[in-house]
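Q: Structure tokens for this one, please.
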Amino acid sequence: MMAELGFGPPQPALSGVVLFPNLHTLLEVRPLRALRPMLSGDDRFCALNLYQLALMSTLSYCDFGQEPPTRPVDQVSFPLSPSVGNVFAEKLSGYQEAWKVDGEQVQRFYPLYEEVPYSQRFEIVPFDPELYPQNRSELAEKQEHPARVHFFDDEQFGTDTQAFITHHDQVILISVRGTASGVDALRDANAHQVPFAEGAGKAHEGFYQAYRAMRDFVLQYLGQFHDGQRIVICGHSLGGAIALLLAEGLRRIPSADYNILVYTYGAPRAADSEFSEGASSLVHHRIVNHNDPVPSVPAPWMNTTTKLWVPGAVMLFSAPAPGGLLFAAGLVRVGGNPYQHHGEQQHFMPIQLADGTLSSVLWKPGCESILEAGCNRALQLHGDMPDRANLLKQLLQANQHFMTASYIPAAWATLRRWQQTVDSQGPLVTPREFELIDHALQTMTQQLRDKNRELDRRRPTNQRSYGHEHNQALNAEIDRLRTSRQRLESLRWRRLDVRDVYGSQAHSADLQPSLKRWFSHRENREISQLASIPPPSHSDRGRPQPLDIDSIV
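A: Here is the predicted structure, written as tokens:
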């Protein structure tokens, strides 16, 4: 008022609420809020984790996105979208929903986000050289900045392993990248077995080297931020194999008490049967999509030596006979234990709905035939060798290994299907779906019986016997398929509860607000009785979904 009368200091350019004397003024200040992906901490498999961790596994293929990436001086930013830093440090901490986990992704897949206080977000450490001396650039390689704390990229040391790690007060999340480079592909193919020094059995040498490369990075993070949280580790393909070895390595540390949960997608076999037996108490949910060929390898009989099989593979095209011998010598294991999968398999079995759209039923088949069918379909085996002229084309068409085109849509459809099943109190599998899948199992069983008879006819009359080791193996697999059919049939009567869908979040006060936010997006309002899989677009064959060389060997 003095300024308006022409004397006194000019009015400062301030904004805010004027507090007058002798008046009561109520100020309601909303605390800083953030969004974070909901995760269940239960050992029990749930559709929520299936979908959420598929998205996090795919995000691991992205760069961290920090500018500058090293030796920051006064500040850092995360302008690249999508990137790990942009999702966690920009969008979610700024109360914005992120739906893109792949730079070439067109379809929108939103995680279920819960609203939390800013201090309970998935943390990306702050960067302030004046406040935190460990952020100062003069510390050179010892400087602490977000990319160095949360992101592991071992390209400069030769393994090219990549992963990110972040946490909040209940969960530490570790996501390991799958195959994305030539170095990754060569490591995939190095299936020689080496001792798993941290525990029992032997592991795939290439996967073990990658795990060892990132072990110290993870231990340093846990030393700083672990305070009893559940450690959730996920990964796709090669990343799933590394995630398994990392989880078992952490579990085996005598002085630690880590509570670990693992979800893997399309992961190859990472270790032998002795390792799997020794790691039996590790909670691992292993997801396989229909005929994805990668979980079929390395084959149980492999002990691949790259020094032999790579020259042999090259020679196949010029000198098939000696090349084939050299190739085989580099692949076959002599002695020791066979490669064996670890964890409880969850399998997406595709079906066609009444309106012609595609969906899938998630179930636990409990047999190897379904895995091997994927490998045989991709390779189109003729005798003992694949048809070399069409091999690459066949492999590149094996899109059931891809994340944004296959695993994520199937996981989304499962979440919607299970939500609808709980709402309707209906069975998990309808009679028509049972018939479709049962027919596929019957066909597979008949093929095994035909193969059994064919092998018997090839042997001399005096050696024909259904007690032969090949007959015994095939008969055992036929029995497993019979058990698989019984498991499928049980789904016709199974009723889901809310905990099957949302795990430990089933009775959380945040669940309903989170669902309301999730269903506000049109993509999630699928109203059909059983959710169909969103059809992939042509641009959904991006970086996060390459086919591993695992499939070849």
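A few notes: Residues 304-334, 374-397, 539-553 have pLDDT under 50 and may be disordered. Residues 303-337 form one domain.
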